[in-house]
Amino acid sequence: LDLIHFNKLDTLLICSFSLSHTAERTGSLGCIGWVLVILSGLITVLLFPFTIWFCLKIVQEYERSVIFRLGRITDRKAKGPGIFFILPCTDSFVKVDLRTVSFDIPPQEILTKDSVTVSVDGVVYFRVSDPIASVANVANADFSTRLLAQTTLRNVLGTKNLAELLSDREGIAHSMQSNLDEATDNWGIKVERVEIKDVKLPHQMQRAMAAEAEATREARAKVIAAEGEMNASRALKEASLVIAESPSALQLRYLQTLNTIAAEKNSTIIFPLPIDVMSHFMRN
User: Fold this and answer.
1) What is the CATH topology of the domain spanning 101-201?
2) Where's it found, cell-wise (predicted)?
């Protein structure tokens, strides 16, 4: 008999351990929790005309509701949109807005890789992708995302040179978006877009960059002028070779020059000697 009682006690202990383990694993409320839920349901039924206003809740199309029953999330899926019911004594809920939210990153004083201090600000667009994670895994998802965006902006820009910062804003914004999206994934946040708004340089750096740009433009202008003179000299050389092969071409050039001079209303016109006369004297 003692052995039978011992076996029954062992079986009860194993069953109770299995039930408690299953309740812990599945997130069950336990015996006391179910008693409180049943009492709350009875009170709601007994006071039905009055408790209906506390039980009936409505969420909008862009909202979801995370319901807690005695501190536990009742379902692994948020409620809504539309109408849902809660027990007034044991249930509580948190509304979560699923719309895209944008916020400005305040200007951050950042030291670039080449030791230049700049002030950079931006804008971030994000939305809640998992309402339950945004409520259960972080105290304030919106505020935490704002702080993380500021630190991410400093970390990303700290690895860039000034030239990269000024010329590759799109790449920097994409890198920030990837880092933010990866960091906020456990919070149920989806970062949709990041933009760099303005980059402010110190006044001394602005003057130095303006002087450098002006010097570059002057150097380019001198190179272009030198190339033009070189091309003009080549054209003159080719023209002289053509005229040397055909002396009559030089006479036609003289006539064109006289026509141009006559059209300018000059009081004195000088006629050059024919080239044949000059060549006769040069021969003698």
Assistant:
1) Tetrahydropterin Synthase; Chain A (3.30.479)
2) Membrane
Give the CA dihedral 131, 137, 139, 145, nearest 10 degrees. -80
pTM for this one?
0.63
Structure tokens at 100: 């895209």
pLDDT tens digits, residue range 114-133? 888 888 989 999 999 999 99
Mean pLDDT, range 67-81, rounded to an integer: 83
Query: Exposure of 216 by Cβ count < 10 A (0-12 exposed, 13-18 middle, 19+ buried)?
Result: exposed
- Domain positions in the chain are 20-96, 101-201, 203-245, 247-284
Q: For tokens 């005229």, what's the residue?
A: 243
> Cα(first)–Cα(last) distance of the chain, in Å?
157
For residue 254, count other CB atoms closer than 10 A to its CB: 14
